[in-house]
Recover the amino acids of this structure.
């Protein structure tokens, strides 16, 4: 009787299993690679979002530095005369070891800040007076031409790989973490009459010559899935710091 073999032999079965394992391994490798790429891109996007949030906030406030109204002089009627020092030097930057502190005195840019440190009451013609919030005249007592301009002091502190901000060094809220580098340099004009920055220095000796501020920021990924990224931005000081 002629009998034909049926089914798979051992060799055929081993070949089929090997090919199946190769296909499964290839498919798994594709999924692992896609997941790794997604995690890297997501981590890099998080870094960029943190940098965009911080730098856009700082640039907005830097552009408003020195905006104290229409008149070149402001009478200081604040409590204990606290306004005058910030009026004379609305930008201050200090480095102490690994800690950097940038202090800006700005016109209020809206709802993204804290309560004002001072209020300037002015008519933009003949009078401009700075008051502390507690002794600011009531709006009902102002003349028809007067208005109130809120002024805030914003302090940015870089320490312990974090950048925080607040109205004082003791009252700070963390904005961005995993910051491995934060550098500030100042564009200095060659003379008081020049509106163009001729050079950049780390520490300005005359704040009235500051025309712009350059910020360099390095942020690392919290999950180490992406490489550290460096961001640079230059913000022009729109108001002459007299």
């Amino acid at each position: 009787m002629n009998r034909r073999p049926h089914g798979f032999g051992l060799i055929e079965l081993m070949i089929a299993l090997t090919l199946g394992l190769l296909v499964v391994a290839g498919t798994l490798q594709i999924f692992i690679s896609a997941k790794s790429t997604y995690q890297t891109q997501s981590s890099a996007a998080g870094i960029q979002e943190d940098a965009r949030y911080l730098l856009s906030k700082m640039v907005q406030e830097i552009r408003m530095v020195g905006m104290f109204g229409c008149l070149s002089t402001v009478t200081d009627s604040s409590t204990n005369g606290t306004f005058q020092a910030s009026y004379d030097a609305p930008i201050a930057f200090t480095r102490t070891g690994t800690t950097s502190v940038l202090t800006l005195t700005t016109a209020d840019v809206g709802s993204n800040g804290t309560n004002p440190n001072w209020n300037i009451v002015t008519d933009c013609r003949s009078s401009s007076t700075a008051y502390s919030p507690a002794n600011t005249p009531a709006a009902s007592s102002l003349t028809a031409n007067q208005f109130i301009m809120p002024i805030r002091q914003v302090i940015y502190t870089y320490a312990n790989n974090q950048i925080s901000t607040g109205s004082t060094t003791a009252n700070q809220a963390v904005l961005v973490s995993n910051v491995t580098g934060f550098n500030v340099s100042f564009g200095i004009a060659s003379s008081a009459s020049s509106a163009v920055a001729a050079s950049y220095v780390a520490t300005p000796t005359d704040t009235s010559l500051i025309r712009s501020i350059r910020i360099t920021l390095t942020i690392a990924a919290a999950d180490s899935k992406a490489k550290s990224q460096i961001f640079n931005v230059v913000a022009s000081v729109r108001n002459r710091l007299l």
In short: The chain has one domain: 27-236. The chain has a mean pLDDT of 86. Residues 27-236 form one domain. The longest strand covers residues 147-159.
